[in-house]
Structures are given as structure tokens and as C-alpha cells.
From TrEMBL:
Pfam hit, one: ANTAR
Protein name as catalogued: ANTAR domain-containing protein
Domain ANTAR, residue spans: 35-96
Domain of life (superkingdom): Bacteria
Coiled coil: none
SMART domains: ANTAR (SM01012)
InterPro entries in the cross-refs: ANTAR, CheY-like_superfamily, WH-like_DNA-bd_sf
Region Disordered, residue ranges: 1-25
Length: 128
């Protein structure tokens, strides 16, 4: 028998059901792991956004100096990265920063990468 004044109960979904006993600990562990995963993802995405700006500026510098399009400028950066075993973002940061890098690699490695970039066919940064 159902009372007229009461609304029928909605079924409880498993993902919103109250957690009890040992399952509560398991769920807390799962949430903690998910939290850690998301924090790592945020850190990675922030680093990508920061290096993207350096990369875009460096590509623009190469385009202006070598009078080439963005695809050619990118190809030159990747070639230098492969030849020197330096990350593209480090080469781009060295191109755009007066300091020549972030200290992760010796400044001479970055200087060598920039010299190679300048010696790319047609001179990546223009004549000279």
C-alpha cells in the first residue's frame, strides 16, 4: 500500500550510493589516485602551454629571418632537435630568451643548436 502524500522513491544510482565499511576505504583510495592523476595532468598541460608560447615565437622568428612558412620553420627546428638531441622547447627558449636556456642543458649545447639552425639550408635565420 502506498500513501498518497509521499512521492515514490527514486532508485539510488550505484555511483551516488552511500559508501559503507571496507568499500569506503577503497573508494577513498580511488579518489586520491584520481586526484593525483588530475594534478599531474594539470602540471603537464601548464608546462605545454608555457612552452607553446616559446615555440610559436621561435617559429615566427625563423619565418621572418628565412622568409619561409610555418611548416618549413617547424621542420628546421625539429631537424636541429634531432641532430643535437635537445628538446624543441629548449631550442626555442634559447632563441627567444637572452639568457640562452633554463639551465637544464649547458649553454654551449644550446648555442651549438642555434648555430646549426643558422646553417640550415638557406640559413634558418637568414643570411649570415
Amino acid at each position: 500500500m502506498q500513501l498518497i502524500d509521499q512521492a515514490p522513491e527514486e532508485p539510488v544510482r550505484p555511483d551516488t550510493a552511500p559508501i559503507r565499511g571496507p568499500r569506503q576505504c577503497d573508494r577513498e583510495i580511488e579518489l586520491e589516485q584520481e586526484n593525483l592523476r588530475l594534478r599531474r595532468q594539470i602540471t603537464t598541460l601548464n608546462a605545454a602551454l608555457e612552452s607553446r608560447a616559446d615555440i610559436d615565437r621561435a617559429v615566427g622568428m625563423i619565418m621572418a629571418g628565412a622568409r619561409c612558412d610555418a611548416a618549413e620553420a617547424w621542420t628546421r627546428l625539429v631537424a636541429v632537435s634531432n641532430d643535437t638531441n635537445l628538446k624543441v622547447r629548449d631550442i626555442c627558449r634559447a632563441l627567444t630568451d637572452a639568457g640562452g636556456g633554463d639551465g637544464a642543458r649547458p649553454a654551449r649545447d644550446l648555442a651549438d643548436a642555434l648555430r646549426r639552425l643558422g646553417r640550415a639550408p638557406g640559413g634558418a635565420l637568414g643570411p649570415g
